[in-house]
Design the sequence.
């Protein structure tokens, strides 16, 4: 979290880039340089434009295809597991599970992008708290949105730069900035306990103060904030909290939030995808171009990178009547070849919207939490609600104990494949390994053992070099 990155005043690159998230949001966007904080925080329009810039930055294009936006973080996790196979193209080092050094783009990108967004939310919170020309209700809403985003990216840092919370909450975690870094200067490492406590503080504030209203589904409302909270509670193994937050996120009625006929629509249009709680909206003039993972990597039907393939063992988990079985042997490859299976799940174009959170995930968190809370009957019911929605021939299982939990985790993989790195996320939080099987291009050498250090990244060398409170010892034994 360095001077070169964080001493960004409100002349910020993203400040009045409102057209990126809603073309009609401001009729006359102002210049992107030289904007005074007095102007920005003098009106709700100014503050909304600043928030719009932060939302836009969540999908910003960095230096390469594999370092562009939150979706790049998600997709990098997807290729670290056993289900997805990645060709020797973009994300190939993530696929090999060896892209974690202090000088690597993965470490630098994840650290820098997260901290830039965190610092911008800190500026927004500080400015909104002192603004005199806005109403109190609006002030609370905008601060709640900013706190949810801040918490979300602290959660990404916690997951990416240390063991999981339940391994040892006293372990060092990235620095914790609760106000703009220009106010405080650089800080040393925090602990996982401190970071998660602050994440919860922010998300609880957000869930208690946000409403369902928002400009579009690229913004944060109370449902999305609850979805974020459910993921955090999952990771902490707070199952009572996870269940409550997940139900609030999807609404508690599976029949009204699942649309199986939309599963094969290309995952590229947030307006036509009723299951999306949160997504990155792209337009003609505001998009990631040739960097928009997973679509640009996974779509084999248009010009793209043709980089995503699937493990035979994973494809075999699906019944033929499951709407999610969108795999085909496009290249007539033999079963032993890694290019045997591709998917039509993602349709690539420059305007392809990107899913970041869906209702189906929340149902599965609900089922998982109910299992841990000892409510096996309702866990089965919620799980089967999703299974029967996706497959009209699904049969309700009678699994109990670990077998039921394993069934829920498999269903998460089937539902969310290549979207958010669900297999990696689940293995890390349960402190399990990931064993490569089947027709992988890189097999056993990329397998992960339980609590493997390759589940997390090293602290970037640039941070060590420029932060007086962090030295080379931070990466010792990492």
Sequence:
């Amino acid at each position: 979290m360095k001077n070169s990155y964080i001493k960004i005043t409100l002349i910020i690159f993203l400040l009045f880039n409102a057209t990126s998230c809603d073309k009609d949001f401001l009729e006359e966007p102002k210049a992107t340089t030289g904007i005074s904080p007095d102007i920005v925080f003098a009106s709700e329009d100014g503050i909304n434009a600043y928030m719009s810039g932060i939302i836009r930055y969540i999908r910003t294009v960095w230096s390469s295809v594999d370092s562009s936006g939150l979706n790049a973080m998600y997709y990098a996790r997807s290729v670290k597991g056993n289900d997805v196979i990645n060709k020797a193209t973009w994300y190939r080092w993530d696929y090999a599970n060896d892209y974690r050094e202090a000088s690597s783009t993965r470490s630098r990108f994840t650290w820098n992008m997260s901290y830039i967004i965190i610092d911008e939310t800190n500026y927004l919170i500080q400015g909104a708290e002192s603004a005199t020309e806005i109403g109190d209700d609006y002030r609370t809403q905008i601060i709640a949105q900013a706190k949810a985003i801040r918490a979300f990216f602290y959660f990404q840092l916690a997951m990416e730069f240390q063991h999981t919370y339940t391994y040892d909450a006293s372990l060092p975690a990235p620095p914790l900035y609760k106000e703009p870094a220009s106010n405080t200067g650089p800080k040393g490492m925090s602990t996982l306990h401190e970071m998660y406590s602050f994440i919860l503080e922010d998300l609880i504030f957000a869930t208690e103060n946000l409403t369902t209203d928002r400009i579009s589904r690229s913004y944060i409302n109370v449902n999305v904030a609850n979805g974020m909270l459910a993921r955090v509670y999952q990771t902490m193994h707070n199952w009572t909290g996870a269940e409550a937050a997940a139900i609030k996120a999807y609404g508690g009625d599976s029949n009204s939030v699942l649309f199986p006929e939309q599963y094969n629509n290309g995952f590229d249009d947030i307006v036509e995808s009723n299951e999306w709680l949160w997504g990155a909206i792209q337009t003609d003039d505001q998009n990631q171009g040739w960097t928009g993972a997973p679509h640009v990597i996974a779509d084999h039907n248009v010009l793209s990178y043709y980089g995503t393939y699937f493990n035979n063992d994973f494809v075999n988990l699906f019944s033929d009547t499951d709407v999610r079985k969108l795999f085909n042997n496009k290249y007539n490859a033999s079963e032993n070849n890694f290019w045997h299976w591709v998917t039509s799940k993602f349709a690539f174009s420059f305007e392809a919207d990107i899913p970041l959170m869906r209702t189906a995930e929340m149902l599965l968190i609900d089922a998982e939490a109910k299992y841990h809370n000892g409510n096996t009957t309702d866990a089965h019911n919620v799980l089967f609600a999703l299974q029967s929605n996706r497959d009209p021939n699904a049969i309700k299982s009678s699994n109990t104990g670990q077998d039921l939990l394993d069934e829920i985790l498999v269903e998460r993989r089937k539902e969310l494949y290549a979207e958010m790195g669900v297999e990696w996320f689940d293995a890390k939080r349960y402190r399990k390994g990931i064993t490569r099987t089947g027709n992988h291009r890189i097999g056993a050498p990329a397998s992960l053992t339980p609590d493997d250090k390759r589940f997390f990244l090293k602290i970037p060398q640039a941070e060590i070099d420029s932060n007086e409170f962090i030295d080379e010892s931070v990466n010792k034994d990492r």
About this structure: Residues 105-130 form the longest helix (26 residues). Residues 1-34 have pLDDT under 50 and may be disordered. The two ends are 20 Å apart (CA to CA). The longest strand covers residues 276-280.
